[in-house]
Write a structure and sequence with these properties.
Blueprint: E1 5-7, E2 33-35, E3 77-78, H1 87-93, H2 95-115, H3 121-146, H4 154-176, H5 184-200, H6 216-231, H7 237-264, H8 266-285, H9 289-313, E4 320-321
Helix pairs in contact: 1-9, 2-7, 2-8, 3-7, 4-7, 5-6, 6-7, 7-8, 8-9
Length: 340
């Protein structure tokens, strides 16, 4: 029986090439020549011994380049990071968008009432001032309850508010004549674009109750600019001042109050959503019943249909992860390191 040997040019363990006279790998003591003489007993022919396949590119292995091992998909993960939603929790989260849309509808209704003299500027100023005082009182009380050691400088805030409204009152004649030469069709179209920008860039997911960051600041600026454009269509300076002061209170301060209510109580957040919805419906019922119907249908679709749609479409999500993905570092937050 002929003696058969298998000679390796590369060490299958560490990939080191054998020199011409080397018979043993100096790194791992692997034999370069392996005896493959068939044995006669049991009537079996032995197969060539092969080391298990390893997922290493720098090692020369006795496998073809396109070899796919059975262990390749062992670490495959499907939909590992998919979030499972509950219908009523998604409905509750959608109230953030409903509240903001209702706020825009209410502001537009207030402008229409001022424009057609259905609402006096004095009443708007009184209502806005009283609402701001009540909202600030609730905001200050809730912050004291959440963070007892916080010290809000009430006198400084009051001084800044008075100074701001006095400055706004002085700028009222300029704001009134800002778009005097612009046609009304351009004003209405530009206002719609600005309110759409406010709706698109509003900070819906932030839990920050004190500061407004980008892109939330862009949303606030768009709403204030739209208010300036609308205020320039009013007749008297007092109407302009009333609408602009209400715009600052409604688009800059009221969103922070809404986030505060949401962080404190889900029931309070739901009650605020219902109040805004009923207010917008009542105000526009005197202006256009058709818009009221569209508004109600839109709110119903957004609040009840869209959450069901989101949950239903999750079944078609197919996200796979495996060892071929790039490495993601795990950052430990809140860990203090002493370098001294």
């Amino acid at each position: 029986m002929e003696r058969m040997q298998s000679v390796f040019n590369y060490c299958p363990r560490d990939g080191r090439p054998f020199r011409e006279n080397e018979q043993i790998c100096p790194l791992c003591d692997f034999q370069r020549s392996i005896d493959q003489t068939p044995k006669s007993h049991a009537g079996l022919m032995p197969q060539t011994p092969r080391l298990p396949w390893r997922k290493l590119l720098y090692v020369k292995q006795d496998y073809p380049d396109d070899h796919v091992d059975d262990t390749f998909l062992e670490e495959l993960q499907k939909n590992a990071n998919v979030r499972h939603y509950e219908y009523w929790s998604v409905v509750l989260e959608s109230t953030i968008i409903s509240q903001h849309i209702s706020s825009i509808v209410i502001f537009v209704a207030v402008f229409i009432y001022l424009y057609f003299r259905l609402l006096s500027s004095h009443a708007l100023i009184y209502i806005g001032t009283a609402g701001t005082a009540i909202g600030y009182g609730f905001w200050d009380w809730s912050n004291t309850m959440l963070t007892p050691d916080s010290n809000y400088k009430r006198r400084k805030i009051l001084k800044g508010a008075v100074l701001f409204f006095l400055t706004l009152l002085g700028l009222t004649p300029i704001l009134k004549t800002l778009t005097e030469k612009t046609s009304e069709d351009t004003i209405w179209a530009f206002t719609v674009i600005l309110f759409l920008a406010n709706l698109a860039f509003h900070d819906y997911g932030s839990g920050n109750r004190r500061n407004i960051k980008y892109p939330g600041s862009l949303s606030t600026n768009a709403a204030i600019f739209a208010s300036v454009v609308l205020a320039s269509r009013l007749e008297t300076n007092l109407h302009v001042f009333g609408l602009m002061s209400f715009a600052v209170e409604w688009f800059a301060l009221f969103p922070m109050l809404r986030r505060q209510v949401r962080s404190i109580s889900n029931r309070g957040n739901l009650a605020l959503t219902i109040v805004l919805f009923l207010t917008a419906t009542t105000l526009f019922s005197q202006i256009s019943p058709a818009i009221v119907v569209i508004y109600i249908l839109g709110m119903a679709f957004l609040t009840f249909v869209c959450p069901f749609w989101l949950i239903w479409i999750q079944r078609y999500k197919n996200e796979i992860h495996g060892p071929w993905d790039e490495a993601r570092p795990k950052i430990q937050h809140g860990r203090s390191v002493d370098y001294n």
